[in-house]
Amino acid sequence: MPQDAMPTPAQLEQLELILGGHVFFQTLRSAVDLDLFTLLSRSPGASLGRLAELAGVERKPMRILLLGCVALGLIEKRDGYYNGAVAQRLLNRDSPRNITATVEFAHHLVYRPMFHMAEAIRENRNVGLSEFPGEGKTLYERLSQSPELERVFQEGLQSTTAITIEQLLNHFDLTHTRHVLDVGGGNGTALCTLAARYPQLHGTVFETPTVCALARERIEAMGMLDRVGVHPGNSFVDPFPAGPDCILFMHYMTIWSEQANREMLRKSHAALPSGGSVVVFDGVQSNDETGPLRAARWSPYFLVLSTGEGMFYSADEYAGWMREAGFVDVRQIPTPMDHAVVLGRRP
Fold this sequence. Notes:
Elements: H1 9-19, H2 21-33, H3 36-42, H4 48-55, H5 59-71, E1 75-77, E2 81-83, H6 85-91, H7 100-110, H8 117-123, H9 139-143, H10 147-171, E3 179-183, H11 189-197, E4 202-207, H12 209-221, E5 228-232, E6 246-250, H13 258-271, E7 277-283, H14 293-306, H15 315-325, E8 328-335, E9 339-345
Parallel strand pairs: 3-4, 3-6, 4-5, 6-7
Antiparallel strand pairs: 1-2, 7-9, 8-9
Helix pairs in contact: 2-7, 4-5, 7-10, 10-11, 13-15
């Protein structure tokens, strides 16, 4: 295209989405906060006036909110208003697959820190952490001093886990595994889900003390206290608990630097028995480093806020680090939602 040629309508629309990203996210979050998608699920075809009444707001602001949701494809306008397919399945609180907790995670924890992204890139550190008071150099240390935000964080991860865990179950057979150690296992949702699928399986969540307290609540709620336990500690400083024949890193290695992940895999190799397995299950960037959008969206979070160290790595990188640590039979298994299962066996 000549330098002075006008961009196409499609190119301008893409630019509009980028320029308006901050507005469009808050449009989504406002609709979630007002339970707009749940209201439409219960009253499909509702009019503008009826939705304003149900949400307890005036007509004009509801019209503005609906304009945004329709333009974004979240809601359809025909003779009345209806949820689109994505909103009905993922943003309606009545849906068991809803990700409203993930939206709250982004709103309360990620939105403001992203203001500091350019500075974080220049300084190569998590400058956005300044948005959260407290001691510590990582978001996780700061969250341990804020129980309300830590619960928002864990509920957001639980929401993501509930959708992605099926991919791990569909691509990794645990029939012959006795005990899984879930390093950085959050509130235990993933491990309890694995144990529910495999009756012989026991597990341990290795997490910080405050997260372990939340995990105990979740494990009890899922009826798994007899098979899933917790072990408080620091994964870099403290030894892994004895006994597991599988060590799982789910949504964990994206947090840390390449060197830290190499060290963690070497530590896993030393802790596992012969024949034991290590599994990384996480979002990944493509091996040619060209995307996808999910990797592009989340990688800045790890630089700007989380630790200042991590990003979405490629499956090739995880596989290479496993081989360096001494694992054999290393395999990469791509899964939906831009995730991959990467696993290796200790000889």
